[in-house]
Amino acid sequence: MTRSGDALSPVERERLERLRAADELADLVALTDAATEHDAYLAARAEWRSLMDRRVPPAAPTTDRLPGDGVDLEGTRVVVHGITHADTDAERAFLREHVAGFLEAGEAVYCEQGIRPMYFADMAEVRGMDDYRWALKRCRDLEVDSRLAATERSFDGLLEDLTDVAATFREAVFSLVNSGADVYGEEFAMALGDVATDFLSSQEDLARARDYEAFVRSQAAAEDPAKLPHLQRYYATVFLPLPLEREWLRRHDAELEVVSHGRSERMADYAAYHAEDAPAVHVLTGAAHQPGIRYYLERHRDGHRRRDDFALVE
Predict the structure, then answer these.
(1) Which residues pair with 108 in a beta bridge?
(2) Cα(37)–Cα(29) distance, rounded to whole angstroms?
(3) Which of 16, 136, 153, 270 is 20 to 30 Å from 195 by CA-CA measure?
(4) Model pLDDT, residue 155
């Protein structure tokens, strides 16, 4: 587990911005002096995490607020709240209390399509987005053997179709390692978890930050939502700029890229399209999507994306 420290030096800030400006994996080769794009991605990701860990402010120890990242779009504040969506009673109560306050203030609330039936089925004002439907449609258009296009399950079960035996086994190992943290100490458990991550995680898992640290932070936040800032901060530091992560994942699994990082783009477009209808908009999503949604909202803010290009998926 990395620790936050001093602010970056001018040289380090310049280095971070050079990495941020990379548009594709090929750009990373020259930046890292790596022999291949594969090696360049791994090197850049490690360096990015180190720099971002010292740039992003430390998470508050505890909070009774629902934390999030805000982006201003033509006078409307859009706030993205990353959660665990682990279906725990603690997170349900925490979210419903805050969402009720948002709605009372006349603000709009949208959520990842699978979250609404999990936490807000009886709250008509909370609206589910169409990110799963969009992903299904996109996957049907891909020239690959689509696992999603063949399924007859409900939209809310689509992501489970991508969960295989290896992922289930990895989570079981992570749970076992985490259970020993009280006995052997957090530092030892984290070191052992890093070893398990290296052995049990695939290239696709790397691009989605499916590692031990993410597992531990998600479990902690699901049990105590006051720890959500720590989970959000982890994802804020670990991902390279989304175009790089998407290219890496697309090369390894084009369908999975659509269902994961691609949905972050869709949810940002959905929120931006509806932002003009409310004084403020809140987006509730899995914490791993939060950096990507913020990235694409900032693209809207800076004029690189247009609301007029958006169309709902029926």
Answers:
(1) 281
(2) 6
(3) 16
(4) 43
What does the alpha-carbon distance between residue 193 and residue 206 come to, in Å, rounded to a whole number?
14
> How far is the C-alpha of 59 from the C-alpha of 229, rounded, in Å?
5
Q: For 233-281, write each residue's pLDDT tens digit.
A: 999 999 999 999 999 989 888 888 888 889 999 999 999 999 877 889 9
Decide the pairing of beta strands 76-83 and 69-73: antiparallel
Return the structure tokens found at 15.
Answer: 């280095």
Residue 204 in tokens: 């696709």
Residue 292 main-chain phi, psi, to 5 deg: -70, -40
List of E strands, 240-287: 280-286
* The predicted structure's pLDDT at residue 55: 93
pLDDT exceeds 90 at position 169: no
Tell me how far CA of residue 1 lies from CA of 44, 72, 166, 232, in angstroms.
18, 32, 24, 15
- Distance between CA atoms of 289 and 236, rounded to whole angstroms? 10
Contacts of residue 242, Cβ cutoff 8 Å, sequence gap at least 6: 261, 264, 265, 291, 292, 295, 296
Q: Is 81 helix (H, G, I), strand (E, B) or coil?
A: strand
CA 220/CA 174 separation, integer angstroms:
13
Give which of 169, 165, 191, 167 is closest to 178, Cα–Cα: 191
Euclidean distance between CA atoms 104 and 100, whole angstroms: 6
The whole-angstrom separation of Cα 153 and Cα 61 is: 40
Give the model's pLDDT for residue 184.
43
What's the pLDDT at 3?
43
Token pair 């079960």 is at which residue? 157
260 close to 55: Cβ distance less than 8 angstroms: no
Question: CA 135 → CA 193, 258, 263, 267, 270, distances in Å?
Answer: 32, 6, 7, 11, 13
Of the candidate ranges 53-57, 128-132, 145-149, the one whose mean pLDDT is the lowest: 145-149
Residue ranges with strand state E in the chain: 69-73, 76-83, 108-111, 126-128, 280-286
